Amino acid sequence: MNSVFSNKTAIAIFVLPTLLIFCGIVLVPIFVSSYYSVLDWDGVGKGAFIGLDNYVEMFTDARALHSIRNSFLFAAASIFIQLPISLLLALILASSVRGEGFYRTVYFIPVLISTVVIAQLWSKIYNADYGLLNTLLDNIGLSGLAQDWLGQKKTALAASFIPTLWQYVGYHMLLMYAGAKSISQDILEAAKIDGASRIRTAFSITIPLMKPILKVCLVFSVIGAFKVFDLVYVLTGGGPLFATEVPSTLMYTTIFNTYRYGYGSAVSVFIILECLIFTVLINKFFKTE
Amino acid sequence: MKALLKRSMSLVLALGLAGSLAACSSNSSGGKSSEGSGSGSIKLTLWDQSVGNTDPSAKLLPQIIEKWNKEHPDVQIERTGTTGEQYKTKIKTSLAANEAPDLFYGMGGGSFMQPYIESENVLEISSYLTDEIKSKMAPGMAEAIETDGKIYTLPVYTHIANLYVNTELFDKAGAKIPTTYTELLDAVEKLKAAGITPALIGEKDRWPGMYWYDMIAMRQAGHDAVIEAFKDPAKWDSPDFVAAAAKMQELAKVGAFNSSMLSMSYDEMLGAFNAGSGAMMFQANWVNAGIEDPSSATKGKVQVIPFPVFEDGKGKATEIFGGAVDGFYVSSTTKHPKEAVDFLMYLSEQLGTQGYLAGAGLPSWNIDGLDTSSLSTLDQSAADIMKTATSFITWWDNILPAESAETHKNLIASLLAGDITPEEFCKQMAQLKPTELTL
């Protein structure tokens, strides 16, 4: 078997099918989209070449800039709220608490549920008329706080962040948990013998040794935030009045509701570039540290 | 080892080949298969989106096709049904690739079909139409389906929007069913005092709110002014339309609509109205079946009335918001245009009349001599309102070009939320593009 894996042609042959599929459904569409993004095209017939006008429009249009701002806020919330929670849970679980397997499974369940189901679930929780959240507030005497969570500009954005943050906490927790578990017991025992407290051990030993996995989590959560679509689309559709619009929902509405394939493609190319640039930046950041 | 590798390679290749073959063959059978089937008979393909459980057309279509196939052994119809949003993508893709079926269902006139009419993907059928078929249509229909003097489709159902009022809640609040704007405001006041939500809007989807504004604008400015403004958008910025926007905002400010409207979807709105959580809803007759459903708490308590007229408005109660917009189209790539149009005429009339009896929509065809006793009261009253019609204006988001339609809906949402003043609203409406349709 080893001889097969060291044979370059064999490797090439085994990789080929996947490579072809990958090119067909990922690379080629990216290039096709880039081409569309310099056209003024309604999806039928021939498009007119307009150079970078679509991109210029995107960076001058208040609605598009607002959606980009929202996606950055979303990324920030993922980094500063979601990942710390995941890390805390991972460290607690990895320190051999009772019911480790049980909690691990419970926190991971939201990851397994379809995002559309989660969005429906949360839209019922937020519902202004019969929602769980408002009913709860009423029952504990805080009726004044009950409101139309997804229907107001000032609460809708935060309300649509929470379900995604909640959904993927388990995913990052599992990655970090695996990272923490793979740290050699010898090092941890040595720290214990030296009299390091649990918190000290976590900050001086476990977290620094988990750096590679933390980098992966950071990349995943930032990219996930930039391209979030399904949850926002089902929960609010980008509304009310664009308050929760992110680049991907903007792309969807411009292409499928206003038939501006060129402009929508420009937005999609922007999302791809944004993700690539941030992946490189995060990798650089971890290297220099 | 090498032998194993070779064998597995050839297996992979064989599988790949089989896969691509399968893909090809399914493609060609899904696309156009209008070739004769050996016995010399013509095969026509038909695509539609009537597959839902509650959609009466989903039951009627197969029956109508079966009957046609029996009566016309030489022209056989093959039908493929696909569900809503997927259907839109499917038909768009196949039209763009010139692989459209012989006949297909096209959504609401204007913005959906216009590009395909312009790019000549759709067959122009005026020359195939006889006076006989035109005389079978309901009054005004033959003119209404013309685009630039040409005909591409035939009407099936007509849908018109009216005010649905829950009489039980009105009685409870001691409110009078409104016929004028003043009475509407009065009813809102009384309903609110009784702790009842006066009217429901599912503004998350934006078009339910658009129906309100469009109707108010038609009552305020009148039919002709609206048609003029569609052609020359600068006219949206005129005192009548400002007054309409002001009335819309006034209704929102006095609490006529549910406070949760911006997060409520169209489906949730229907659910809430059918459960009796709101006293009024402005919608088209496609909601009738849901209200009359045995599971609905409001069954038998709902009355459908024309939208109130305005004391200071130029519009009349007989100017109807709605029309026949959805229909079947023939592809310009069909090999048998005559047979396809023959079937189109048969299908449109049969579905239009039988569907009316099944509660799918109001008929676009002459229904004298049909037994309408089986119709629900809501369908009958809607049909009675339609009989009084002097003019129709269909859904504005179909008349406006796609991008302007989006802007129009977004502006109305801002108006309802109190984000913009009626004056700003009309200034921005004046920036819309003129309609591409001939009205």
TrEMBL record, chain A:
Gene Ontology cellular-component terms listed: plasma membrane
Keyword Transmembrane found: yes
Pfam families: BPD_transp_1
Ranges for domain ABC transmembrane type-1: 68-282
Membrane-crossing residue ranges in chain numbering: 12-32, 72-94, 106-123, 156-178, 216-243, 263-286
Entry annotated with the keyword Ubl conjugation: no
InterPro entries associated with the record: ABC_transporter_permease, MetI-like, MetI-like_sf
Keywords for the protein's UniProt record, in alphabetical order: Cell membrane, Membrane, Transmembrane, Transmembrane helix, Transport
Top-rank lineage group of the source organism: Bacteria
Localization per record: Cell membrane
Major location category of this protein: membrane
Similarity comment: Belongs to the binding-protein-dependent transport system permease family.
UniProt-recorded name of the protein: Sugar ABC transporter permease
Organism whose genome encodes this protein: Paenibacillus mellifer
Automatic annotation (TrEMBL), chain B:
Keyword Methyltransferase: no
Alphabetized Pfam families for the sequence: SBP_bac_1 (PF01547)
InterPro entries: Bact_solute-bd_prot1, SBP
DNA-binding recorded as keyword: no
Annotated PANTHER family: ARABINOSE-BINDING PROTEIN-RELATED (PTHR43649), BLR3389 PROTEIN (PTHR43649:SF14)
Alphabetized Gene3D superfamilies for the sequence: Periplasmic binding protein-like II
Domain of life: Bacteria
The protein, known as: Extracellular solute-binding protein
Keywords: Signal
Signal peptide, first to last residue: 1-22
